[in-house]
Design a protein that fits this description.
With 343 residues, the protein is an alpha/beta fold. Among the domains are: 111 residues, Rossmann fold, CATH 3.40.50; 67 residues, no CATH class. Helices cover 34% and strands 19% of the residues. The protein contains twelve helices and 13 strands. A six-stranded mixed sheet has the order 8-9-10-11-13-12. A five-stranded parallel sheet has the order 2-3-4-1-5, with helices on one face. Strands 6-7 form a two-stranded antiparallel sheet. β12 and β13 form a beta hairpin. The radius of gyration is 22 Å and the shape is globular. InterPro entries: P-loop_NTPase.
Amino acid sequence: MPLNALSSYTADRVILPRRYGIASGKSFLYGPPRSGKTSLALQFALGFKKPIYIDLANRHLQSDEVQGYLLKMHLEKKVDVLVLDNYHTPIVLPHIPNIVLIGQKEACPQDFVPKCILPLCFEEFVSFDTKNLSLKTLFNTFLKNGNLPEIQEFGAYKRLERLYEIICVAFGADTELFLALLGFQSQNTTPHRIYSQLKSTMKLSKDRIYSTLTHWQDNNVLFFLPHSYKPNAKKLYFADFSLSHLLHHNLAAQLENMLFLELVKLGEHSNEALCYGDAGEFIYQHQAFVSIPFATQDLIEHRVSKMQSEHIYVITLSFEGQGKVGKKHWKAINFIDFALGEE
């Protein structure tokens, strides 16, 4: 088996463009499982003449074999870009200008630039469409299928099975814990509260659950969003908003998680912090964003009256309009237009 698995990985595979780019130099890609990190790295590598891709999770490869191969390719000047997938153990890297490592964030070498790769945003999902489907149909599919790139290739009867398989492979002995967390989606909670609720039904130590949650948060598998002024208050969201389909169907929680991820996307090129307020609204760049799927004007005005922000976007499934509550201006816009930047 050749060590350079680039041709076998890219054979019969269409790599579609993402919102992320990789700059020349030394990059370290991390993020939730199956978010498209490898495809992005290979798309970058294919722009070079002598790319090498090695998956270090390949059980047939020994570290000394990989080390010797890299040295040989470097000395023979047969590599101008290197991609190492599932990087976790120290390897002497060749002195070449362009290297992309993929792994857990804590494995990032000091001289590499870390870059988080999240699953598809709605705009990317729309750009992948090759059937000229309506935006309404695409939205319904996105809501049902979720945002992992590969899941779009599976039929309905295989989708949940594949999601569960991804979780089991990624989290191993912590699969039960991760599945239990899905019940907290879009809820006010904290690691301590999660531990208190789960310890009676699962065999958990406080140290284990805290370290595991920290690891998942560091790699953006999940997010504990802080309150705007209460230091200990948090809300829990996931990088894949659809995972809770494995347990139950909570449309409101999933739509709120979808809105959260769209706001995370907006903040990828900004230093502005995202937080949430007393009325459950997201606060970003001094504006409020709240998910009210089945909105009416009365319901909107009731929620807006509890908010502090003067400029409020209400994200709905279909209702549109605008108005004022005292000095607070609100505008209702459907999720499709908001996510595509057409507000």
